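User: Predict the full complex structure for these chains.
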Amino acid sequence: MTPPAALALSPDALDALMPMHARVCPDGVIQHAGPTLQKIFPAGPCIGQPFFALFEPRRPRDTTDFGQICAASGGRLSLRLRDAARTPLIGTAVQLADGRGVLINLSFGIAVIDAVAQFNLTGSDFAATDLTLELLYLVEANAAAMAESRELNERLQGAKVMAEAEAQSDTLTGLANRRALDQVLARQIARARPFALMHLDLDYFKQVNDTLGHAAGDAVLTHVAAILLEETRTGDAVARVGGDEFVLVISGLIDAPRLTALASRLIRRLEEPIGIGAREARISASIGIAVSTGYARPEARIMMHDADVALYASKARGRACFSFHEPESGSGPSDQSAAQPDKADIAAPLPSRGKR
Amino acid sequence: MHGMIIRSFEGFLRNTYGPQLWDALICGLDAGIDGFEPMFHYDDVLAARLVTAAARRLGKPRGALLEDFGTYLVAHPASERVRRLLRFGGVNYEDFLLSLEDLAGRARLAVPDLDLPELELTDCGAGEYRVSFTRPPPGAPQVFLGLLRAVADDYGALVIADYTGAPGARAGISLRLLKADFAEGKGFRLAARATGRAERTA
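Assistant: Here is the predicted structure of the two-chain assembly.
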């Protein structure tokens, strides 16, 4: 069988087969350009311009000689448009018979997504065999599927956060519960961040429940929660750990005068009469304080125990007061740090998270 | 049924008839969910119950409701992504029709476990086409009828489309393309950076 004869193709046929081709004369000037290639030069016609005045060679880098290009790399070349976006292009150049120049077919390669937007190309700008449309479709389909997936993840994340918050909060007051408190303490200790632990127990709360009823008791607890949140900062933790027992983790604060001020203020505010309908509830609080820097290696369980011991020392001294646990002085809280609130309010107030 | 489809149907009901209808429907289904997730799979029976319940509550024939769903997939702004993916099928409506047979394959490129009905397009000449389905899931031809009409509008083509054949294995759609450029179509730029939101309800 004889080899097929060389083809002679009309410019129209070439335009249909390769909408991004260029025919370049031996002197390097573009003689003809496919319709899509013409579209990427909105400023003026590319025909009649020297090829390398419009395109900057990237590979092979140092030559603009098509003879060398065709010989060296099988005609494969990599270019950039000499425009603001420096759009990359790839192409193949083949030499035409009888030294009539070269035919170069170009493509945007992976830069096609940006190029389509930049040059406002449409489906009919690409040959039917060109997979550009399929690529664009895939990019968009992938983005759509990813968006669905992301939205699902966001919904699940929202549900998870809510479930966790519910599992970690006290339903009546919305404060942290014991489980959340354990986590806060573990985090504080793991980060070796100094903190104070205040164990607060309401005084005379049982009388409120007994005389005004449980609904009034619940209202008082909610009121107490609000005060505790107002008097502490965002980074502190306030937990309700029993019927009328609360634990405060005061982060980064170990200074005795300031803790004294805080405890005094808490007691004073909790002693303000609480209106329950037409009636008034009056309570107070006893507090025990343990400070993490008082331990070589603070442990949540031991600190809780020591704050508890200090709390019962306050109760024993007649309630409505606070005591520090002081490890160095042996066991039990020290007398000198135990104080009635009116005598101990000596330090500047803490910046609080709530409005006073 | 793939969650992508049933969630789109949920979006159609929510966006067209309001959240109250949806809440009543999902409550009546008693399936222990308050909505469908696009990446999950659901029991076909549940999907069928949802369509039946919605049609009954709206006082519409099932077929008409499913046609409206097909229209929604193309014409509603909340479904812009679907419209765009369909428009990748061709530069004009005829081109789009010729790409219909690839639709299931294209859908699988995007979401590998999304099975759209296999269909065949016959060019009967003189602008007449016939779409035939091979074992379509119940209701799918009706959805396609609404969708094909809406895509014609989107391209600005004037088309008469009708449901042909008995429901079931031999279901099909006949199309007559009267004028390809009857009206100004809705724009389609290949590179749209913002592809519209998915089926979301406010």
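Chain A is about 40% helix and 20% strand.
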